[in-house]
Every structure is written in C-alpha cells, then in structure tokens.
Please model this.
Amino acid sequence: MSIITISRGSYTRGKEVAERVAKELGYECIAREAIVEASQEFNIPEVKLVRALHDAPSILDRVSYGKEKFVAYYQLCFLEHLQKDNIVYHGLAGHFLLKGISHVLKIRILSEMADRVKLEIERENIPEKEAFSILHNDDEERRKWSKHLYGIDTNDPSLYDLFIHIKKITVDDAVDIICHTVRFDHFKTTMESKAVLEDMLLAARVKVALIDQAPNAEVTARKGGILINVSSSEYRDEKLVENITETVKGVPGVKGIDINVVSLVPFGD
Model:
C-alpha cells in the first residue's frame, strides 16, 4: 500500500503514465477531483480556479488572503483523498504537500519539447510556432504558480525520487519502472508513516477552521496535540488566544492545544 505522486508538464504523457500505473496496480487515479472540491469550499467558480493554476496567481491575489485560503482548502481536500492509500495523484504540488511521508513515491515526468509540440499540433490543429509558444508559456506559468504558492521550483530534482524522461524510455517502460519501484519496502505504508499522514490531516483541518480569524497561523499536529504559531499586533493578545482555543476545540481529533503568539509590535514600543 503506497501513494504515488506524478509531477508533469502539459503534453509530456505524464497523465497517460499516471492512469496506466493506477490501472496496473489497481490504485485510484486522481487529479482534478481535489481542485473541484477546493473550488467549492473556496467559493470560486471551478473554471476560474483551474485557469488560475495555469495563469499565475493573479486571481487569488485579488481575494483577501487568497493564497493562504487556497493552500489551506486545497491541502485539506488533497489529504482527505489520500487517507485511503493506494492512490496515484497527478496534479498540483503533490510531491510538496506530502513532504516527509515515507510511503510516497515522488516522480517527475519529462519529455522533449519537440515531441510535446508535435502532440499539441495534432490535438489542437494549430501552427508549430503557436504550439511552441503555448507550451513555453504554460511551463513558465506553472513554475511561477509553484513558486508563489509553495516557494518551490518544480524542476528541483531534490523534490523527487525518480526523474523519467519520455523518449528512449517509452510510456510502457515508465509504467514498468514505476510499478517495480513502488513495490520496494521503502515505499510501503507503515504504522509510523500512516500516523504522520494523520497528523498532517488534523493540522490541515485546524488550519481551515482558523483561516478567517488567523490566516497566517502555522499549525502542526502530533498524536492529537496541536501547536499553533500565530502573529499578533497586540502583545500577549489574550482575546486572540481565547478565540483560537475555542475554535480549535471544535475540531474532531484535537486532544491538546498549545498556542505561541509572536508580537508584531517593535521591541521597546
């Protein structure tokens, strides 16, 4: 039992690889489902949210704490999906959102630009120059989006366990490689790795519960204990602590709360 995340650009055949791996292993394959759920929670029409994923972060920048809210809602929907295990996910920042979970195999699929352009021309019936421009811009916007939301570069090799270049290695080869690799003991779910994932889910639920009153709060969880680091313009803001405590108590699974308030008032004022 494992989770596989596949990061990809458009027309790299990454979607095809993900779907075939899922079929071969008997896993569920997900991508846009989490986006759809996030859009419902975030109260932004799905079409705008999907477009925002490819057109840089301008849409969410126009919403109060848009970035923080989107990340919080998306991460919660994403983690709720992945509690079931045996999933192949190809989509937004899966490798980053599951950082620190040992039973996740993180993969990046690459393909030659010439091959991608050819596929774009065939599917969209457009000139070569236009196809190249679309793909180049799409790659750049995806990079900007990941940088803006998560502070990561999707091309950073340290984020992945495997880089697979679709050329000499075919889609069939890629599927075989991934299915073989995920069976290694390193990627099998353990009680410990499952507990870490459950902690991440609880922290995500608390983060969403606090998103309106403390959008910049940093939340971590361990065995039901919640640690919250939050900034306040009022030194020792007891009302803020009281409100946060009351909200967090209502989140199922919370067994204890520790709140650390960092004052934004300059020292000596």
